[in-house]
Design a protein that fits this description.
Strand content: 5-15%
Number of strands: 8
Largest sheet: 4 strands, parallel
Number of helices: 12
Distance between the termini: 57 Å
Strand order of the largest sheet: 6-5-7-8
Radius of gyration: 19 Å
Structural class: alpha/beta
């Protein structure tokens, strides 16, 4: 039988990290056959984690009757609920919740990166655009009427089907917008910046040496094929939530990625302070 899960404001009293984990789990549940998830929220940040086609925006008209808004839903949410109090002087836009975990963890654990700019201390928000929302976010420029600066960091090759050329084109478009900066990773995605030795310590029994090109390999899928009892989402969350904490400046240097990673935070600092 079909099941509908109806939850009122699930983000209430939850730490922002747990809100991301919760929303990610609810979206996975919604993909199961004969399952539907309906949630209500007054949080623009929580709403933005869903794709726009899955948003339903209701507001009262002059007579006090509920009206369904069909167009420009995110823009209306911003205007009605007040998105700006949730945002900061600078927003870092990434593709998914796991990218948020990676940036937060390496910044927190590696002193040299934290010394450049402390993401937790400063007035900075990190927003996961969930891949499909990327184009809409840029085309409609939801923060155009604010003074919020944006730093975008895109995967080179995404599971959403976009290739590196498409992302480079998107980054170029963003860089033409005032107050914005966009970079495309030199490697496939964040998981490719974690050292092979860290993976070997965590996922015992998997021959990571068999990977021919570490920079382009879809590592979460590689692990899933070796351990079918784990799903890809769980693997990505574990990699960026746990393994990323084991990364050091020395490991990044051994992999030849230190200058690139350090450059992300330097450009974030320059935008924040500029």
């Amino acid at each position: 039988n079909g099941v509908i899960y109806a939850i009122e404001e699930p983000e209430t009293s939850q730490h922002p990290d747990y809100q991301i984990m919760l929303m990610d789990s609810l979206m996975q549940l919604a993909q199961v056959i004969n399952r539907q998830v309906i949630i209500t929220t007054h949080s623009p940040e929580f709403a933005k984690m869903a794709s726009e086609e899955n948003l339903i925006f209701l507001k009262k008209n002059e007579e006090g009757e509920p009206v369904l808004e069909k167009d420009n839903k995110l823009a209306n949410i911003r205007e009605e609920l007040g998105i700006l109090p949730y945002l900061s002087k600078l927003v870092i836009c990434v593709e998914g919740p796991c990218d948020v975990l990676f940036l937060q963890n390496v910044n927190k654990m590696i002193h040299e990166l934290k010394a450049i700019i402390d993401l937790e201390k400063e007035n900075i928000s990190i927003i996961p655009l969930q891949g499909g929302n990327l184009k809409t976010w840029i085309e409609r420029d939801y923060l155009k009427n604010s003074n919020v600066k944006q730093f975008h960091l895109y995967d080179r090759d995404s599971n959403s089907g976009r290739n590196s050329e498409q992302y480079v084109a998107v980054a170029e478009k963003v860089n033409q917008m005032g107050g914005y900066k966009a970079l495309v990773l030199n490697r496939r995605e964040m998981e490719n910046y974690i050292s092979k030795s860290v993976y070997e310590e965590t996922f015992s029994g998997i021959d990571f040496e068999s990977i021919e090109d570490w920079t382009t390999c879809d590592i979460p899928k590689f692990i899933m094929n070796k351990k079918p009892n784990l799903n890809e989402k769980a693997i990505k969350t574990r990699i960026n939530g746990q393994l990323a904490k084991s990364m050091t400046k020395s490991l990044f240097e051994q992999d030849g990625t230190w200058d690139e990673v350090k450059g992300w935070f330097e450009q974030i600092r320059d935008m924040y302070e500029g």
